[in-house]
Amino acid sequence: MNMLNLIGIYIFIVGIISGCCYFNCIKLDNKTKDKYKSLLYGLFMFCFIIRLLTIDNFEGVKNILILNKDIANNGIIYESRVMYLTILIIRILTQGCAFSLLISRYFKYDSGYRINAYIVPIVYGLDLIFFNQISHSFCGLDNHMFAFKTSFFALECLSAILIGFYELKEYSDKNLIKLNKSIIKKMIYLLIAFCLLTLNNGVICNLFGEILPICHYFNISYFIALSLPIIMFTILYHNFKDKDMELKRYVLICLSLCIVIRHWYLYSNQDGSPSYPLTWCWANCMLMPFAMIYDNKNLRNVMLINAVVGATAAMLMPTPLLDDYIFTRGGIHFLSNHSMLLFVPLLAYAFGYYQKVTFKDMKGIFKFNAIYFAVLLYFNLAYPTNSYFYLNNNDAIDMVKFIYDFTPLRVNYVIQFEFLNKTRTIYYHFWPFMYLLINLLSLAAFGLHKIYCLLLNKIYKVK
Is the dihedral of CA 307, 308, 313, 315 positive or negative? Predict the structure, then answer.
């Protein structure tokens, strides 16, 4: 057995012993226990974020279930297809359990706590038993036990197991440790939902390779892309429309948080200049959890106006997806995030959690646009090799070239200067034009919002 696996098993055993000793032998008052619990959650979240922001080597593995093709292993070599499949399943369960721990820290739902108590220690125990293979897939190939990323993954596993024991002891103290069929069913359904929400972008490619035709306008892959948000909205709306508002809010927060996690599945692998989420759609992805959690009308209006119109435009004209396979890592990232960016705000409106936007509310959206554009200008000057929201390149111009060629507006009116060994460029005609375009897009979005509200009323009877 590999040394890393032995060390992982040792950490697992130590975790079990220390957890049992801590929560059964040491008598502490509830206030002190809660402090230790908060410390464990804080450690877990920090380690999880470290892993989320580092490269995931398993994304390049393909064809696990295609027996007549060799496995594209991306340098990750296991003994058999069964081992590849085993590691993939453990990875999926690990992401689902991690999400359960994250969401349960701040939003109370009994089935979530029971996942933490009964399932999390088992799944993270498997991570430690297969520590060599799992750490290679999550943390990279050139790892050893005391490497930065690997050691943090070990801490993530240990803290998750200890949190699980804490929750189990809580149920034991309240004489609620026994499970019945109803509780088990709810746990399983919720865990499956968490696993699907946090599914890595490359899972379908891991299993089947590149399937379905390359995406072009109006072929089957294109129509699958368009139908995805409609299917997801319909399923969630019909399953939760008659539930209480607290459960609806829990569902919406879970969906919005998973958008953030899924975003970093792709952008954690960027090299060179930082790839901050500042484009129109990705900025809205990062803001969506705040709009769901906090009662801020302006932020919620931004989701219903800016987020929905950006996602609609992206889905109708999926430029990053065209000429690529629909179920590649990049394709799934584009499809899932834009689909959720489109249907989650509309779902919040259909649930009655968001209110219809009025023209008077547009004042708050224009204020948001001004702040957003100021941030864009700073980052485009700070990182001139990047182009946030197309301000430093011709991409936006190329999209509308069939209407009018705005290239002279960008290339003929510039000021360049050297600062900190980099050439900075100010496009003093093009940038104001783009700011005007953002506000015009928001105005157009207001009309689109009215159309969506009308469609929801006619098709789903949303009032």
Answer: positive
